[in-house]
Each structure stands twice: as C-alpha cells, then as structure tokens.
Amino acid sequence: MSIDLKTIKHIAKLSRISIDDKKAKELEKDLNSIFEFIEALNKVDTKKVDPLTSIAETSLKLRGDEVKTKNIREQILKNSPDENKDFFVVPKVVE
Amino acid sequence: MSDIINLTLSALIDKIKNKELSSQEITKAYIARAEKSKNLNTYITTDFENAIEKAKKFDEKGNFDYKLPGVPLAVKDLFCTNNLKTTAGSKILSNFIPSYESTVTQHLWDEGAILLGKLNCDEFAMGSSNETSFFGNVESPVGKKVVPGGSSGGSASALAAKLTPATIGTDTGGSIRQPASFTGTVGLKPTYGSCSRYGIVAFASSLDQAGPMTQDVSDAALMLDVISKYDTKDSTSVNFKRGDYFKSLSSNIKGKKIGIPKEYRVDGMPKEIESLWQDGITLLKKLGAKIIDISLPHTKYALPAYYIVAPAEASSNLARYDGVKYGYRSEGENLISMYENTRSEGFGDEVKRRIMIGTYVLSSGYYDAYYLKAQKIRRLIKNDFDEAYKSVDAILTPSTPSSAFKIGDKTDDPVSMYLNDIFTVPVNLSGLPAISIPAGKDKNNYPLGLQLIGKAFEEQNLLDISYSMEKELSFKNNLQDWWIK
Amino acid sequence: MSKNKEYLIKRGNSEYEVIIGLEVHAQVLSKSKLFSDSPTNFGAEPNTQVSLVDAAFPGMLPVINEFCIKQAVKTGIGLNAAINKKSIFDRKNYFYADLPQGYQISQYKDPIVGEGSILLDLPDGEKKVGIERLHLEQDAGKSIHDIDPQNTLVDLNRSGVALMEIVSKPDLRSPEEVNLYIKKLRSIMRYLGTCDGNMQEGSLRADVNVSIRKTGDKKLGTRCEIKNVNSIKFMQMAIEYEANRQADILEEGGSIDQETRLFDTKKNETRSMRSKEDAHDYRYFPDPDLLPLELTDDFISKIKKEIPELPDEKKKRFVDKFKLTPYEANILVSDIETSKYFEDVIKNSDIKLATNWITGELFALLNDRNLEISQSPISSKNLSSLINLIKDGTISGKIAKTVFEIMANESKDPKSIIDEKGLKQQSDPKEIEKIVDDVIKENPKNVELFKSGKDKLFGFFVGQVMKKTDGKANPKLVNDILKKKLN
User: Fold this and answer.
1) Is B343 an 8 Å CB contact of chain A?
2) CATH-assigned architecture of domain C429-486
3) B409 in a domain, yes or no?
4) Is B223 exposed, middle or buried (0-12, 13-18, 19+ CB in 10 A)?
5) Which residues, listed in sequence order, are joined to residue C117 by a DSSP beta bridge?
C-alpha cells in the first residue's frame, strides 16, 4: 500500500498541519518506508481474533456525582495567549 | 563532594537519616555538578534556587521518616510540575507553566524529595536517541557525541553523569529501558496501570507508563514503592495489592524459571549482544534458576503493530495542542490557518510524521486494515506471553539490538531508528513489567543491557531476579567525567 | 386505519411524502459533568464552570460519572429500549475552537442503549415511533461570534456536560408528528428526572434528517441533515422549507445532494454549511483512557425500581380510574408536575371541577404570567378548597372566579378570602324571595312586558337580583324563585 502526494496533503489537512510541497515529498518517502515496514502485519491471519481494546486489567471505575472543581477561571485562562480575562479568543472561523 | 554524588539513592538516604549529610549539602553538590555539565544538555529547566530553599526547609524541620527525605531529584520533562515550565521537549509547549502537579511527581514530593529541574527528552516522548527535542540533542556521558537513547535521554544521561541520584522517566515502547541500556543504568517499566498517568503529557495512552531510572536495582525498588499507587483520577489505574518492594528485596532466586524466547534472536544480531545474552543465561543458572526455552511466535509483528497503535493514539492525544488554551500560537487569518500554522511550526518532524501515520491509520477505509488489525496482533502477542508464563516466572532478553550509536547516525532513516525498540516494544503492547540492567560493555566500552520481563503486577519477582544478577555482574560505568567544564 | 390529514408535498400531479428522523441531544440532569467534576448549571459567567480536564490541559484524564450512566439507563427504560450491558466509549476526532481536546468522547458502534419506541397520540389513533439507539457523549463549549468583530470568543462552561443522543428511526412523517414526538420525549425525560427539556436553555436540541419520496415508493430518498435546531417551531419550519426545496429539485429532474445544512432563523430557510472540505472523517476509535462499560443485571434492576409511573401508564389510569376523556388525560399527564398537582387536588375534590379549573383558569393564569405549575401562586391545597366551596354551594362558580383571582395575588386560602370580603353565596330562599319581591315591585313596566311575552327580559330580572346582592345570590335559587314569582 503506497501513499501518494494527494493523500498526504489530505491527511495533513485532517491533522491541521500545513505542509509545503517540499515537505510533502519528504514525508511521502518517509511514510512509504514506514508503511512498507507495517505491511508485515498482513501476513498474520487474525480473522478469529478479538482486538485488545483495553490492556488495564480492571473494570471502569465510576465516580460519584459531586462537584469538586468550582470556579477556577483564572487558572484556566492564565496560559492562553490572549489577555482576555473571561474568554478564550481565536480568529474567526470562515463560515 | 565526590563522595556525595557517588552514593546510590539508598546509601544517600541512610546518610541523611543518620544526619551525616544534610539535604542542603547534597542538593548543592548535585547543582554544582550540573552547572559544570551543561554541555551534555540534560536539563531543559533548572529550579536550583527553589531547590536550595526547600533543602534548607527540610534541614530545619523535615520529616526523616519519609522515604525520600530531603533527596534532590530531577525528573523527565514529561511530568507536569506545578509552577515550573513543562515542555515535553517541544516548541509547542516551550512556554507552558502548569498550575497542577502530576500524581507521580506529587508522590515524590510527598515523601520528602526536592525537585532539581526538568530533564530533556525526545519531543512528546517520540524517539529513541533524544535527537528530536526542540531543546537540542542530549549527549551521553558514555562517550563524546554518543546518544543516550530515548525518549528519556536527558534522564538517562543525567543519571549516568551523576547529576541526580535517581530519576523517573516514561516508557511507551522502551523509552526507559533502552536509554538505561545505552547508559549503563537501571530502568524499570512497571506493569501498565500501576503508576498513575494523571499529569503526564500523554503520548500513547494504552502504552505510556512512568517508571524509575536508578543506579541500581534496590534504588529502583525504593522508587517504585513511592510511585506505584492507585489513583482515582486515572481510569486505567489498577487497584492491586502492592508489596513493599524495597524491604522485600531478595537475592535468592533458586528454582525460579526463566524463559529464553527464540524469536528474540534476530537476523544480524551483533555477536556481542548474543554473547551478553548467553552470559546472562549462564549467570542465572549459577544463581540456581532454571532456564527454559520458550517461543513467543508473534514477536516480529510487535514493532509494526506498535507503529500503528502508538501513532494512532498520539494523533488524537496531540490534537489538543492547537494554540487556543496554552502553549505556542502562530498567527492565522482564520481559525483553520491558525491551527495549521501553530501545529506545523510548533511540532518537530518526527512528531508530525507520527501524527500523520496515526491520522492515516484511523482514517475512513483504513481503520480495519490497520488499527483494528494491530489491536488483534496485540491480543496475539499478549496471548504468547500468557502462554509462556504458564511455564516460566520471567523472561530474559537483550534490552537493545546494539549499544549506543553516535548522534546523527540514524536520523536519515526513521525505520532504522524504530528498530532500536525491537526488544522493548512487545512488553508495552502486553502491559507487562520489565527492567533493564547493565550487564556488559561492547568493544567501544559502551554499556550493554539485559532485559527481564515479568508477569503482570509481579514486580517483586522481577526486582529479585535482577537484584541477584546485578550483585554478580558488578557492572561499573567508570565514566571519566570528560564533559565536566 | 384511515390516514386523514396526511402531510404531503404536492407538485402538479406528483405527491411526495416526507420522511423525518430526529437525533435529539438532551443534556443529562446531573450535578457534575460526564467525565469531570465541574458543575453543569445554566447561565454561569463564562469559563467559571471549567475544570482542567474540561479545558484539556496536558496530562488530564477522564473519569466517568456513575449518575450520568444511571440517567441514561433510566431514559432507555422509559423508552422501552434494550439496555446494552457492555458499551464502549469512542473518540470522535475533529478540530473546532469549542472542542478543547480535539476530540469528543462519544459512543460509536456500542452504545449504552439499543432499540426502543415512543407512542404518539395522533388525532386518528396511536402511532409507535421507533428509537434506534441512545448513547452518552460530551457536549462541546460555546463559540460566540458576534461580540468581537475580528475574533470568536470561546466559553467552555458547557464543554464536557453529559448529553444523551437519542436517535429515532425515520418513522416521522410530518411537522406535527415531530412536535408530538419532541413533546412526548421531553415529557418522559421530565418524568424520569433525567433531562429538564428546557429548549430555551439548550438542554434539548435536535438534528433533523429530512428526505422525500413519491407516495407509494418504497425506497428512501437522499436525506439532508439540518443541524442544531433548538425549538420545535424552528424544526417544523425547517422541515417545511426543506421538504419543499427537495421537491422543487426533484420536479426539475435534479437529484438531492446528501449534505449538512443549517436552519437560518432570520430568513426561515435551510442552507448548506459551507465547510465543504469537512466531509468529516471522525476517525472513531475506542478511547484508550477509558475501559469498556459493563453493567450488571443488579445495577439495571435497581434503576428499574426507580422508574415512576410514566405518561402512557398515567394517562391510561386517569382515563380508567378517573373517567377523564383521553384528551383531558393527555393534557394533565403531559407534564409530570401538572399530573402531580392534579392528583393532589382530586384527593379531596370533585374530579370534573378539578379538571376544568386546572386546564382552564389555572393554565390561563400560568400562561399569562409565564410560570411553570411548580411556581403556581395558587397551591393545590387551596384550589382544592376552592372547588369544595363551589361544590357545597358556599359560593357560585362566578364568585369562585373572583376568589381565584384574589388568590392569584394574595397567598390566602379561599375561606379566609370569602369571609374577609363577604363573598358567601346568598342561599337563603327567604332572603332571595325578599329581594325578588323588591325587584318585581321596582320594575312594574318590565314585569308587564315579560308577562306579555318578552321572555328575554328574564335575564334582566336575574341581573337586578344579582346587582342587589353584589352577585352573591345563589343563581339556581334566583332562577327558581323568579320563575315562580313571574308566572
């Protein structure tokens, strides 16, 4: 299975990473060699195998319906790049 | 001062408890050495002034009953530390100061330890040589321009260079054990679910695990006592009865059954690694253990499966780095271009590669062929181990397929870099515990490690076996402090 | 069953029926969020109900709220649905400013609740609408586009609140059925206490899937999804517009593009969402920070025990036991608070009068003042007393209306009001006879006119008696005595 430039650009878009043509070409080479390596998995017959969805040998722990975090707005906003004290600020979405 | 930095963690603690050494003396000794070792580039952020303050406070009224009383430690920069910059080795978090503490590091401070600073690592823990960090490469004290391994390269280098008496790293595909092997130190990856992942910058959620990196096995046991605890803030944390690892350490391993998996004998394996392994087998026999040949038939599929599962989970875990809430933000005309610019400028090449792989294998039409398939392979690999453990107590393998290489040697070919993890990755895929202990040196005098893999939640067994081997191996790094300015 | 009043789109000789499916997002009533311990109250100051987990800080992890699981199971039981003992939480990956994690924790292939149904009361009988599934997921934050001209402001208060997504089968056929479906679903959840159904506060919103096909066709047409409609009226308008839009296209020989649309509430039309490149590839995979959710039979049966009598059952009981008409019963059971109020009142009062006073005067009052019945200024106890005072003849129905109005403004019981204002009905025949005699004496001309055939004047005499008694004379007695005296 080889990945072409078009697919790479599409994946970059889905990942919200911009890449120029030069970068895309480099990635094409790297990704294809990685995928060649991954292709080895096709040799194994896994039709009757259950996927391992969780490795932790325990059951999902349930939490009580309690409010423990009240208002920590300052803490929440203090790392944001904008100075706004009430909201996160981002450029507009093009609708 | 050299007598301080040459002490193991447990020896250091004894001296503190006996009032032979003060926390301030020790802290200052490590700081002084770190100041002279800057060219190894092990630290991303130091917190030396605060460390001395805390050491002072400890000396005044510290609790000597703590397990790490007044002990200064540096930790991998993947653990969020309150009010101290935490970067994960990335530009995208280069200015991030958390307002909270990771559970594992909190355990350290609760037992009296003092934070020296944050150690360099591969960006977002993705790498096997600490060459992907935004903050520059780390050099190993083992040799000039030699890589320390990765991703916990800064931790391994600092430990081996004696800039910290012990440290903690994280291991997703070998990131504790491989650098331990490369630097002649001990690295333990506990069973998945034993150490909390809360507050650790996530790479691959079903594989990540924090663990101790220490000078010897008893130090590792001591650290494990402190950090292996159930945490309700982590839904994958397991509430099992944890032993008293340090106190229960025993070097009597008579009758223990050790498995030797034939599939770990890979094509082109260097002779030195093969003979190291043989020496290990001989040693175990001498110590009274029984050696049993076993088969782990799906071993060769572990690395490909890992390079599907880990990037897939990472691609999703790293989606939160978007410049909105914290971290680096680049300008953009609109939201999408802000995202794209931020992430392409903020992430390094290896991280971008893995995000792309991850996005691809999860994408529409490919999920079954890749991700689902890899999860099935994972089941088969785990089954292999479960089967093997019906007849053995632990498994012995080399830690790495080679000794440390030079900076720049493998950066052109991602796959050759990935192959470093060939012996360590199956362990993460199965959630088992494993430890790497230094067992020999190669012709260049670079350390070589042996790996012991244990049964889930049976770290004591693992520690006992490696403890007894360590005693006989008497490995010494004998580093010449060549980097000290 | 005859189908009268079918909703059809007519174009020339063609007739199209409209196929509608709804994906309702209902906010779970709980104190804290689905995977974090911050509060869920509506209307708080921006970003004051956000935890580190909600804001997706590095290293933060989800821990599930048991109560939200119970609420989902409860709702599933109320929808007669299968409860899946094993379900999985998956990540739905996409980027948006109000989605801090860059993914939403949802359920994809293995939801917590399976197939169920809701009964609708249509004018021509009951209709069963199928439920496909119900699953739990995180709500997103809010993006505010109209405060800052250059930027979008993001409030994460809502980020992480538990939502139940309830997917119907494409069994709905008209805007009216959609109205009844939403109302019924809302009513059931309010009965169960699992969602308050407050559409103005956003606790209930829906994505509406609309397609059309020629009547008689078996195959489903291509559907369009209208996202995030937050009122029943808008849903109906959107369906109307969309069905017609699709009919126009088909009539011209075109074909419908499957797409996601928005309802423009200013122009009253649906339009395509311009982000075409986001043929969203959500890359679902099981969330590795969580484990599969496994419910025991014990867990489920404990919840079953907590289920109160639901609207359908209650309606049947009201009709059977209290002899209400289905129409009346419907009104009284549609809201659980109303049914509670009603049953309170009829503990000690006449059922017929209670029904009329609640659905008539009380509802008018509440509507007028925009109040819920739980906020009624007139308690069920007091209404009950009032009704009893009518029944035992202490006051007339007319006077009762006056007392009611006073009760609406003063929190007094009816007896005190009647005593205070002297509103007791005059029921002494001797007294009334005296007054009737007076009225007859005072109006000889009209008496003559009446006796000569002007029957309508009877009302005049009644009026005069009422005037003299300040409206307090017992109307029946007045009638009887007047009749006697005037003949």
Assistant:
1) yes
2) Orthogonal Bundle (1.10)
3) no
4) buried
5) C130
Which among B176, B82, B163, B85 is positioned nearest to B125, based on CA atoms? B176
In a domain, B377, yes or no: no
* Interacting residues of A49 by C-beta distance below 8 A, sequence separation 6+: B376, B379, B380
The domain in which residue B210 lies consists of 2-256
The pLDDT value recorded for residue C274 is 59
Kindly report, residue by residue over C370-408, the tens digit of the pLDDT. 999 999 999 999 999 999 999 988 888 888 999 999 999
Residue in the block written with tokens 């994906």 = C23
B200 contacts on C by Cβ (under 8 Å): 59
| B-contacting residues in A 18-57 (Cβ below 8 Å) | 18-19, 27, 30-31, 33-35, 37-44, 46, 49-57
Residue extents of the structural domains in chain C: 8-303, 309-421, 429-486
Q: How many domains is chain B built from?
A: 1
Tell me whether residues A92 and B307 touch, CB distance under 8 A: no
Residue B203 lies in a domain: yes
Residue B180 structure tokens: 């331990």
Task: Tell me, yes or no, if B151 is annotated catalytic.
Answer: yes
At C469 the pLDDT is 86
Q: Determine the 3-state secondary structure of B213 from DSSP.
A: strand
Q: Terminal CA-to-CA distance of chain A, rounded, Å? A: 36
Query: How many Cβ atoms are within 10 Å of C453's Cβ, its own excluded?
Result: 8
Q: In this complex, is the C-beta atom of B234 within 8 Å of any C-beta atom belonging to chain C?
A: yes
Tell me the C-alpha distance between C323 and C326, whole Å: 9
Model ipTM value: 0.96
- Walk me through the domains of chain A, giving residue ranges and CATH numbers: 5-43 (1.10.20)
Residue environment code for C237-246, b if the CB has 16+ CB neighbours within 10 A, otherwise e: bbbbbbbbbb
* Token reading at A73: 């707005």
pLDDT in tens, B399-422: 999 999 999 998 888 778 888 899
DSSP designation for C464? H
CB contact C155 to A (< 8 Å): yes
Which residues are CB-neighbours of A75 under 8 A, at least 6 positions away? Answer: B99, C52
Neighbouring C-beta atoms of residue B435, cutoff 10 Å: 31
Question: What is the interface size between B and C, counted as CB pairs within 8 Å?
Answer: 98
